[in-house]
Design a protein that fits this description.
Thrombin, subunit H, six-stranded antiparallel beta barrel, mainly beta, six-stranded antiparallel β-barrel, 4 helices, 17 strands
């Protein structure tokens, strides 16, 4: 018995086959990428030695109880807590290892979180590839933004991703993802006086961190700042933002508490806005 298909049936079959092939190769949707990566993302609450509190981001990687973040986020920490999107909150007991030059740190959580660890991609991504960032911009935790890998640039002697994803203070230390939801980098710094010009440390640099080392408690951790290059903005965002209407004397007091740190001052005058980035000198503002 011979079975023959009419042209209409053949046409329908070919369309179905084409649709099946297309679905097999379709890129994951942003919501799928977010859902896949979210369980590994943390918002960090940092309290420094002066009692000031800040927010940063981190991602569970290199171990079920190891959080990876940017070193500048925790460089002067004395207490750190990590919160997941499902409300789970855990104490971060200390720093396992750090690379201050590359702005990376591996932190020890108080307990393990099986099946939450992020998938790392240590292969360098292509320029113009899609990128996503999850973090806490301005303290708004677990926010996602997207963009492109604008370029791969050699900065401070090693390759870094330049990304167009909108990144703000609080995103620092959070994961940069590819279109498969894999971590390709850690958000590190933004270019001052530029729009959507940010940089991430490639995931392959995480191999420099030795997670077999003993944990160093925060109170024993030596003081240190990530050496910010001119034009960088790396400061985390305070948990509780203070009003900027206190006048020049209040500004002087704030700057005295930030001696040696990179800051950005925004001057608004006659409807125009200018930003000035600098490292606060000893004694603050005279």
């Amino acid at each position: 018995m011979t079975c023959r298909l009419s042209w209409g049936n053949w046409h329908a079959a070919l369309l179905a086959l084409a649709a099946g092939v297309t679905s097999l190769h379709a890129e994951p949707k942003p919501e799928e990428i977010y859902r896949k990566a979210l369980p590994s993302v943390m918002t960090l609450e940092i309290e420094n030695e002066r009692g000031e509190r800040f927010v940063g981001s981190a991602v569970l990687a290199l171990g079920d109880d190891v959080a990876v973040t940017a070193w500048h986020v925790v460089s002067d920490a004395r207490r750190v807590w990590a919160s997941f999107s499902d409300g789970e909150r855990v104490k971060v007991v200390g720093c396992i290892d750090k690379d201050s030059f590359r702005d990376l740190a591996a932190l020890k959580l108080e307990k393990k979180f099986p099946k939450r660890k992020a998938v790392l991609c240590q292969e360098m991504q292509a320029v113009a590839a899609r990128a996503y960032v999850i973090g806490a911009p301005k303290g708004y935790g677990f926010s996602i933004s997207d963009g492109l890998i604008s370029q791969i640039r050699r900065v401070d002697g090693f390759s870094q991703y330049q990304v167009s994803c909108p990144i703000s203070s609080g995103n620092s230390g959070g994961p940069v993802l590819n279109d498969r939801g894999e971590v390709i980098g850690i958000a590190s710094w933004t270019k001052a006086d530029a729009q959507n010009v940010s940089f991430a440390i490639p995931a392959r640099e995480l191999a420099r961190l030795d997670v077999s080392r003993s944990v160093v408690a925060w109170e024993k951790l030596g003081k240190g700042e990530h050496p910010a290059a001119p034009g960088r903005s790396v400061q985390p965002i305070p948990v509780r933002e203070e009003s900027g209407e206190g006048g020049i004397e209040e500004l002087k007091k704030r700057l005295k508490r930030s001696v040696g740190k990179p800051v950005t001052v925004i001057l608004r005058e006659n409807g125009q806005e200018n930003k000035y980035s600098f490292t606060v000198p000893a004694g603050g503002l005279k």
